[in-house]
Amino acid sequence: MNYHCCRSGTYKPKGKGIKSLKSQGSAKIGISCPAIIKVRQSTENVVVQYFPNHKNHENQLEHLRLSESDRAAVAGIDIRKEITVDSGRKILIEKKDIHNIKRDFKINGYIKRHEVDAVSVKLWTREMKNNGENCIVFFKEQGQSGNDYGLEDEDFVLIIMIDFQKEMITKYGKDKICIDETHGRNSYDFNLYSVLVVDEHKNGIPVVFCFSNKSSEDVFRIYSSAIKNAVGIFETTTFMTDDAPTFYNAWSYVMATVKNVLLCALHDTRNWHQNLNKIKNPEKRKIVNKALKAVKEELCLETFSKLMKQFIQELLNDSDTCEFGKYFQQNYAKRPEKWAYCYRKGVGINTNMYLESLHKKIKYHYFEEKHVKRLDIAIDGLLKLVRDLILQRLIKITKRTISSDKLSKIVNSHRLGLEIQSNRIEKLADNEWKIESNHSNYLICKKEEECHRLCNIKCTACKICIHSYTCSCVDNLIRGNICKHIQKVAKMFLNDTHNEEIQEIYVNQNDILKETFDVLPCSSKSANNDGHESKKRKTESILALIDEYELTLEEGSKIHRNLDSILNIFYNKKEHYNKQVKMMESSTINIKKKIEKQPGFSTRRKRCTAGTLKNPTTEEGYLLVFEGFSRFISFKMPTLSIKEELLFQKLGKRYSEEEFNELCFEFGLELDEVVIEKPDPSQDLEITVFKIDIPANRYDLLCIEGLCRSLKIFQNELKIPRYSLSCPQEKQRLIIDPATAQVRPFAVAAILRGITFTQSNYDSFIDLQDKLHQNVCRRRTIAAIGTHDLDTITGPFLFTAKPPKQIKFCPLNKDKEYTAEELMEIYSSDMHLKQYLHIIKDKPVYPIIYDQNNVVLSMPPIINGEHTKINFNTKNVFIEVTSLDLHKAKVVLDTLVCMFSEYCNEPFMIEPVEVVDPSGNVVLYPELKYRTEMLSPKFVNKSIGINETPESIANLLTKMCLKAEVASKTGEIKVEVPPTRHDVIHACDIMEDVAIAYGYNNILKTIPNTVTIASQLPLIKLSEQLSLELAHAGFTEALSFTLCSKNDVSMKLRSEDALSVAIHIANPKTLEFQVVRTSLLPGLLKTIHANKKMPLPLKLFEIADVVIKDNKKDVGARNERRLCAVYYNKKPGFEIIHGLLDRVMQLLDVPPSSETSSGYCIKAYDNPTFFAGRCAAVMFGEKKIGTLGVLHPECIINFELNMPCSALELNIEPFL
């Protein structure tokens, strides 16, 4: 039998290659080692030949295995394995018992030097000095005079720095220095400050510890001076800290100024997210966060400057984001070099995660998740931390290991790098490449020199280390990772050149071991511990040997007797200590309470919230900053926010959240959320706010008055009010000048007499105007409201229009007069009014309203006059609404006066105003018309699916604020629609209210009876059949939006005439949806742009409707069903699109023919969308039904594509 060296031979993997090889490599050296033991056994003896000499390898620790005895000693004793029925109290042993045993038996090497903590710490410092340990670089105890250092007598400062730490800061401190405070205080309210450097393994090494009860620049100067006295003055390249300037100020005063002073990216992001709550609109909050991240991560300094300027301007000019904009401008805009990525390129550090990790180790491992009461225990824990870090560093150097986090990043980058298509890589020079990405282009450079450092951060598959290449992406340039772009280039370079493995640098382990143990801290050394380590080792050996050998009964008894004698020595020994000076404790710390956990991962499934902040792409960030935030706000139904106390006061009783939610649901509303808000952040006052979603057409529910009135009527607690007009002897008059036809031709007005304002109803009055402006008035573009104190002006009033130079007045909240031109300039930077200036800015005349004495009431839709401003003392309110649409003006006026007429001396009584139109006709406003609708009970029951009597239906309608009664003659239901219910247009709207009042949950589900035979429409059937065939041909079906932008159908397709046949959307809410599409091609090209990273070729099709203007149709337009297909690849592929056309015609049974009357043919055709000479028209029945060809290069570029594309678009309706 032969026993070979364990290092001899070649490594043969047993798996499938999924798991990576260990970082230190295989124990096998790849060749034979001559060391061998040959054993030959005969009948009488055993002959052993021993060849002890090893060759071709060293005796490296990382490749040796633990002996069985060592493994047994490490394993120790499982207490619960020894438990029996008779074990007694041992059965109940738990974690705190183990902790107490460790404390009482002084396990882990710690023995208190004195019962008094202050004395124990002082004894430890003396012991360190007497033993020649120079780890105390500064010590000032409490009670000692601190005048020489600028400290008070009660101040405490202890700075610890062992030899290993001095070596590390000397070696790595010139690159990066991180400093921060460890949160989680002890009972003395001492703070722990740590200075940290980053070693070659990208691991954080704490190099100095400081305990102090004071957090000031004076203490930090002492801290920095102690470092200088220990290792001398040195310059560092990068200094990272939190947002407090005291750390860096002290460092630069003692050492030198630093080139890169950075703030931790995580701290910045955390602060920004907290202050983003200043933006009340949750959707706008997300958008600002995306723009903020785009600005922060921009790597080009010039682009960053432009983004920064535009970003701040957008923030300050928006009323919702202004408060956050001021915070950002004050705290971050003036020092971008501390947080912007463009200033930290190549620095290799972005966050203070090294210190975050250190904090967690200290608090949750070495301090056992407790607020440590004694300082000497804390010091011992820190020295053990350094000891463990030294040994971990020894392991990393010896076994060449890398952390799982860094390894996973390398593996993930390698996987993503393989997914990059090779055709996206362009070689610029011998050691320089460019990779084209979906969002940007990245430059990769290979360094000229070989890496001769002891480098563990490497990709073994690509045979590169972190120092081999550089890339211009954020992952490499900022975060210091081997990015996917480097992995891809390295893999291609490896395949091209077949370069060898990365050069392995031999490590002399004996030297490293000697250096390591020379600098190990004596963290476990205790007072009077002569022979202690020897006793401890013998005890551990006994534990290991007990499990290894079987003992006789006599041997076991002898061991028991000796062990009892040893234990009696310790039980009978007592030490007495004299209590001396105590450290001053802080009563605010509960030392038994566990330290609050820092944010981390959780396996619990959490509820998704609308406020989640997500990261944008580069393009999204640029669009958000340069095109403004408002464009990207999606519109939803208005929300009414009401304070809880005010809501229940108006309703006359209190509800629980569940009860009120149920009431809203029954009434057809939705309680969006209930939130706690702080009106004043500086105070602790909190209020509960109910947020209710209101249907967009229920203008009567947009204020608390209308909502509570309707809910009380719904619960039969209030009768429906009757709105009426008063008959004053002299009516006020508003005259409309014909000049207003150029800007706003219509105006209506009304008066609320004897109104009483309180703080709550005044706020509601202003809030309702704002909601109407945003909703039915379409942000004042259609209509604008003006409210004025009637007692300050004299009628009649004139609504006219004048050139801006001729208009001059004192606007609201100003103290002097301005011309209209001056006001437009002033308000161009106003965060609230800026958004309305475009409505009249380019008009030759501006609308203006005067009273009899030429006092300006308002310049709609921009601003009211200061002279007519209303306040709490206002008793008579003159309300005017100017508009482009008379009906909208009536709706707005009716809603406003009906909602707040309840506060007048005569509730629900409104004084009308005579309005004289340009033709001289006089009309009284508001009209307050009540409309009557007749409804068949049978039709209502049938339509809804219920079976109610006419009287019951009438009662249900009355609950919904629609007064109803049964007509005695016909049995029909007579419904009176009040002036507040402008949402009721048709009988179906009335039936909807019946269904709401009845309760949707109470309606039984039934299948309606029909007498027709269902069949598929021929057009739909043809579309589905063609879709199936095109899918069989290898094309993928897409579904794009019916609405698109004007640029999509005109400029991007190079078609100037497209807009003349397109249906335009009035007042589009976004630029993306301005017209109805006239072609399917833009949607497919945008789909290709969104999927450019997919493997080529991309073959897409869509069969859907387009809409074309047609004066022959009653509605002025017609739908047209079309088929559109595109082919996107490195080559145009015209023949593929042509072949698809032939296949479609074959399926339609339409043969090719030179005579269009009997088949189809293609003819040369000029279309600016297609490449000249490579476009054809599809003819059928003497009529052009489609186009095919190669798209023009400009069209390709307009849709941000970079490869040729061929397209076919065909009208399929002629084939029905």
TrEMBL record:
Lineage: Eukaryota, Metazoa, Ecdysozoa, Arthropoda, Chelicerata
Assembly information from the UniProt record: Tetramer of two alpha and two beta subunits.
Primary location group: cytoplasm
Catalytic activity: tRNA(Phe) + L-phenylalanine + ATP = L-phenylalanyl-tRNA(Phe) + AMP + diphosphate + H(+)
GO cellular component: phenylalanine-tRNA ligase complex
Family per similarity comment: Belongs to the phenylalanyl-tRNA synthetase beta subunit family. Type 2 subfamily.
The protein's name in its UniProt record: Phenylalanine--tRNA ligase beta subunit
Domain B5 as annotated: residue spans: 928-1005
